Amino acid sequence: MIDWFDANLVSILNGLAIGSLLFILAVGLSIVFGMMDVLNLAHGAFFLIGSYLAVTFVAGESWAGFFTAIGVAALVGLVAGGALSGLTEPLARRPILDQALLTLGISLIVAETLSIIYGNDVLSIGEPPGLDGSIAVAGNPYPTYRLMLIAVGLALALIVWLVVEKTSIGALVRASVADREMVSAIGIDNRKVKIAVLGVGSLLATVAGVLAAPVYGARPGLDKTILLLALVVIVIGGLGSIRGALVGALVIGQVESLGRALVPDLASFILFGTLALVLIVRPRGLFAGKVAHS
Amino acid sequence: MSVIPDSSVEPAAPGTGAATTTPASRGSMLLRRGAPLLVLVVALAAMPLFVAPFTANTLSRILIFALFAVSLDLLVGITGLPSLGHAAYFGVGAYTAGLVSIHWTSEAPVPVLLAAVAGAVAAAATGWLAVRSGGVYFLMLTLAIGELTHQLATRLSSVTGGSNGLFGIPSIRVGGEPMILAGFVYWYVLAVALLGFLGLWLVAHSPFGGALRGIRDNEPRMRSLGYSPFRYKFVAFILAGGFAGLAGGLFAGLLRIVNPSDAAFTTSALMLLAVVLGGAGTLWGPVLGAAVVVLVRDTFGPQLDGHGPLLLGIVFVVAVYALPRGFAGLAGLVPRRRRAPAGAA
Predict the structure, then answer these.
(1) Whether A96 and B319 lie within 8 Å, measured CB to CB
(2) SS3 for A136?
């Protein structure tokens, strides 16, 4: 057991790093759906915007570039989310498929526009200075940047948990997940909440894209791969649940990393198998109890 | 999943449409519709005598995608299950037909029949999970299934040829003779596709199809009437997968190359667009939608320099706002089906 653990330590750490990224992505997707009933299938495309912004501002060269990329990505995410909120407003009373089609259309437009601007090649960037080395973890050298990703992911999980559980904004979030009509009945403007939630959710996606760029690079098709993983995470965790997003992200991170390392040909089957297994035991995901209206 | 009752629609709607028509009225409907349909079939059959081989080839592709779109409509329009991964079963059928043709026989109709069986089996293997859930879960699960199938097709390169595609598929043979001329291939595609349309029409207009519409419109009510929505949805999913596999088998026989992208999300999205553009739940609408989609892609595709999905995305966004019920809604020919066909949240 110890030997196995030692031999696969790098894969496990990789899984944690992937899990951290997936959490940042999935928590946005999950809150947006849980609170606003908007299934944002353009989430992966927003992520890709972040990755290409990281390339544009050569985030690997200097911290200035890195933070510029993060700042611009955050701004773009906020604006894109706000715009999406306006676009989905007329579709609120229509079947969920219409929203899905709209966000799919947007994701195709964004992804193709990016590939027109940046070309179809895989673009990669380095880690910011100081994080480009590696640290020995239990005797195995491991990239510092990925350790930082794990730390950022865990810190964000903590922040999100504190905000949602301990602040008045968090109370609003929880109330909106539970019963949106009641929240609007006590005098809170639903549309403003929606703009804010979609803005923050999309911001998380674009920032995750910047953070992921030194690991995944930026390439066409990455948006779909990432969206797929994020969807699996929130289906496993339960829509609208933050705890679910964290647990789901950690599980899928390990499945992706260990699965690909141990049985590379069957990785897709294992991913589907995990999804199937969870849904057989808990058809609405692991932590779905909080979502009353879906 | 709850169905929000639309106040303008009579709530006692389950089974509207064909399920409630009497056998006699169905007979007269057949007569009324039969004559123009016969003219259409004869016209379609006569096509290769008048058009160039390239046009015949395009027509063959339209027929295949029309069959594919109608199989998706069985899910989206009739059953109310909006699938984002239907191309998975089309791809499974295409790869099956290709592999059967290469390694065993390309004698018609063996490859397409096995393609249909493979599509149905794949749908059964994945559908039991997808149809357990409704609404947004179904959307996400089918998207995941489709994307995983695409990844599988890319990765299993020893079997599928990986991202290079499965090429060198021999042409279809009838009685040992390979069919080379585009016109003959077209007739073969037309014959199989018409049988496929007939099969789907029969399913949609059977009591089973009526029950599917009932589930789409008011699932709790159907359950209280003693129906098992899960069983009905599962069978509908398998049937849709089988017909998509059939279309995939024809596709492999026509193009003689199969790419992983044929099973990918873009293909699913394209077909969903055909269904939505045409008008979900009408069967004939998606045929029209598929023709438009194929023609638009053929016409504008080369000028877009490989960025066809950009156009696809723009059309999606426009269609959602401008054509909420597709061409069928535009024509105003289906005033009875007021209720939106796709699943409710």
Answers:
(1) no
(2) strand
